[in-house]
Amino acid sequence: MEVTQDISKKNSWNAITLISFRFFFAYLFLNIFPFPLYYVGSIVGVDDLFSFYYDWFQELTVWTGKVVLGIDYEMPTGPNGSGDTTTDYVFQFVVVMIAIFTTIIWSFIDRRRQSYNRTFLYLRTFVRYYVAFTMFSYGFYKVIPLQFSELSNFDLIKTVGNQSPMGLMWNFMEYSDTYTRFSGFAEVIAGTLLLYRRTIVLGSILTIAVMFNVFMMNMSYDIPVKLYSGLLTIMGIFLLAPDIKRTLDFFILNKAVNPKIFLPYTTQEKAKKAINILKIITVLFLFYYNINDAIEGEKEWGKKAPKPALYGIYEVGNFIKNGDTIPPLTTDTIRWKRFIIGKRSLGIQTMDEKIKYFQEKTDTIAKTLQITNRKDSTDVQNFTYKFNDSLYTFQGIYKSDTLKIQLKKKERKDFLLISRGFHWINEYPFNR
């Protein structure tokens, strides 16, 4: 006996299924829209095509937080790298409330409806393409190591105890390109399987496994993407829902599972051909867009991005201030201990292990270095420098003080974490 791609084998759904479908239709749509239309804006060069929609929802969210929930502090609204801001939580509250209200109205107006087989087919397609696009965007940024690029010079000199939980997890991923690519391929494969209805069950299972692991890492290491990774996990469960019984019968209960047929999107041959062509274009665009974006990102700010001329970690030897050599006391908050130049910032670590961050501008012809405090643009230091092998000398005047600083460059390979590498054979555990 064959079964169709319906929520149940019958054309008449029970009340719980009908109500659940109406709720998830509204809830998922509000979380996904305006996908995929915002790609149209990117293609034609109008990135703010749906700014009116985002602005309206943002205003509604802030109003709800202030008036309905009584939040009396400032709610951040712009993108800042966190997906777990107060605004994000209030947004989910608003979406749930709208979904509940929509479900009530819809259930009253359409109370005689027996099923939503066709509507569910379209909704499921909408959700699985969104999840596939998302898995690709995350996955290719790992297959081409970009999300977790490489251990920075700052990471190498920080003690474990002074790292944040998120920083510790990020460094764990950044250390190994092998594991990063493995996790990326898992996401890409899951997304690819979701593109085809014949592999949607396997794709849904893999999506749930991958995203629930991401969700647990976010929960365990204080990473502010808990809401979104949890939402993607829910979407994976939604996609698997029609086949949960068949999946349990096959994998757990050792029962026979009947073949499954798929409802066509349309019975018109021309429309079928048009859909197939559109799908081919969509899949090709999906691969090209994400792969090209990752490759360009790697060149711009990933491992292949250009490094500053003085990129490296420098250990401070002599620190001479106004002609006096300052001893390296661990309580000193002024004397430098290390001078670190990374890809996007410069840091001065004082003897008390604290790091102040600066922006740098190097002139390799005049051999000058200008550093500007990232928190205070008026705090500027100018140095001339010279070097001999790995020994560098910086000289300059800062706040009426004459400084002469001698440094020795420490190579990245001098760190055990970098030099140890991978070994197929270990006669004894090398756990340091």
UniProtKB/TrEMBL annotation:
Membrane-crossing segments per the record: 89-109, 121-141, 201-221, 227-244
Keyword Transmembrane belongs to the record: yes
Domain of life where this protein originates: Bacteria
Keywords linked to the UniProt accession: Membrane, Transmembrane, Transmembrane helix
UniProt protein name: DoxX-like protein
Species of provenance: Aquimarina gracilis
Classification of source organism: Bacteria, Pseudomonadati, Bacteroidota, Flavobacteriia, Flavobacteriales
